[in-house]
Write a structure and sequence with these properties.
Elements: E1 5-9, H1 14-25, E2 32-35, H2 40-50, E3 57-60, E4 63-66, H3 68-76, H4 80-84
Parallel strand pairs: 1-2
Antiparallel strand pairs: 1-3, 3-4
Length: 87
């Protein structure tokens, strides 16, 4: 699987962990993580890019998926795997 996955996260975020688990169960081997708790300037960038202030914020390729609820809704709708395959 070659599509780039980026996740804004923090160290104490259960939804970040669940999102990572879901992505890995779909065969995603590498997730680029930006820790907004360790790099506060990244939080401002994330909010600017996504319009949201909560983590996780997940990008699959150039597509902003949103948070864990959005990710699992995509999965339930059968749309997550095509996105991960770059469709």
């Amino acid at each position: 699987m070659s599509v780039h996955v980026l996740m804004y996260s923090s160290g104490v975020c259960p939804y970040c962990t669940m999102a990572e688990r879901l992505l890995k169960s779909k065969g995603v081997e590498e997730i680029e993580k930006i820790r907004i708790d360790l790099e506060p300037q990244q939080k401002a960038l994330m909010m600017e890019k996504t319009g949201r202030r909560t983590v996780p914020q997940i990008y699959i390729g150039d597509t902003h998926v949103g948070g864990f609820d959005d990710l699992s809704a995509l999965d339930r709708a059968g749309k997550l795997e095509p996105l991960l395959q770059g469709a």
